[in-house]
Design brief:
Length: 337
């Protein structure tokens, strides 16, 4: 079963592995199959579920609601997000203005068929809205009981400090950040993680398997497997292109004996690696087939020995992305419409 960790400096616990439906529900995977994977996640002990209003232009939230129908609400931790354009994608259908945040929480609750979400997240930083306006709206949502906790996604260390300070002034907690993080993408380590540790903010990381590259199924010099994410324009093919270089794929293949010596599969090694970082509360995983989750959840509770961590570091040192300056390019400078 899956272990739990506290989220930030709060009393709220989430499962070390979170089920996410970014590129699967209402997109890559048919609804019936999506519902089966959610049920498999529940059977495996996953109780934390991450979605967003922008996923499949709101349809992913509806699929998740259908999949969780009949589950005891108090036994689940449900996260969603607001920022990216949704609906008709008009001038106020995007960003972190008070209007869009309020419209966002009401729309998400309606689609998810919930009275509240456990975690409501700013999907990116909005450079066009005063941060005070954004944080006041979040404070009001918490006071209204529509969200229990507030988090963000892909914020820089400086943005986290400013947001945390305003949250304290307004009487609520900023408990989490949701960045991309994996063996191959480590840009948060130098600035974001230390700032978060100081502030009492956890990371809920996405793409811990680097869009599936760390599964080892993509081989150097060969076409991507049929039906994989790299071949499906609807399921994130653009996101994975930069990782499909031969030097990256060759390095990943060298991880196989390291995983085998540790008694793990490559996906388990990838998930276990991000969970070695104690500032990481949970790793978000997706699945297109229920059986994939049975393998993934076995990474929870695994401790990687120092020699294993060292071997991974040596193997990927030439291909891992570590530049902290890349955290400053994660949020658009202008709202997307």
């Amino acid at each position: 079963m899956v272990n739990y960790r506290y989220l930030g400096n709060s009393g709220f616990k989430i499962s070390e592995i979170t089920y996410g439906n970014w590129v699967t529900h209402a997109s890559q995977v048919e609804n019936e199959a999506a519902i089966k994977t959610v049920h498999a996640a529940l059977d495996a002990g996953i109780t934390s579920f991450d979605t967003a209003d922008a996923y499949a232009n709101t349809a992913a939230e509806e699929v998740l609601a259908e999949a969780l129908k009949g589950q005891k609400r108090e036994n689940l931790e449900i996260f969603t997000k607001v920022y990216f354009p949704i609906g008709n994608k008009g001038p106020n259908d995007t960003g972190l203005s008070r209007k869009h945040i309020m419209d966002g929480i009401h729309g998400s609750l309606r689609r998810l068929n919930l009275d509240y979400v456990d975690l409501f997240q700013a999907h990116r930083y909005d450079h066009e809205t005063p941060l005070e306006e954004t944080m006041q709206a979040f404070a009001d949502i918490v006071r209204q009981g529509k969200a229990l906790y507030i988090g963000v996604s892909e914020w820089t260390a400086e943005e986290l400090r400013e947001g945390h300070a305003l949250a304290q002034e307004l009487g609520f907690q900023l408990v989490s950040n949701q960045p991309q993080y994996s063996m191959l993408h480590r840009v948060i380590e130098e600035k974001v993680v230390p700032a978060s540790e100081e502030l009492g903010i956890s990371q809920i990381v996405f793409s811990p398997m680097a869009q599936g590259v760390l599964s080892g199924k993509y081989l150097p010099g060969q076409d991507a497997p049929a039906g994989s994410r790299a071949t499906d324009e609807k399921s994130g093919a653009d996101f994975i292109k930069g990782l499909l270089r031969d030097e990256v794929l060759e390095a990943v293949q060298k991880l196989k004996p390291i995983a085998e010596d540790a008694g793990l599969t490559l996906p388990q090694l990838a998930i276990a690696w991000v969970l070695q970082n104690q500032n990481v509360a949970s790793a978000i995983v997706g699945a297109s087939r229920p059986e994939q989750l049975a393998d993934t959840v076995k990474a929870s509770g695994v401790t990687l020995e120092a020699d294993v961590m060292s071997a991974i570091e040596k193997t990927l040192s030439d291909v891992a992305v570590t530049d902290p300056e890349l955290t400053y390019s994660s949020a658009p400078k202008e709202r997307l419409v």
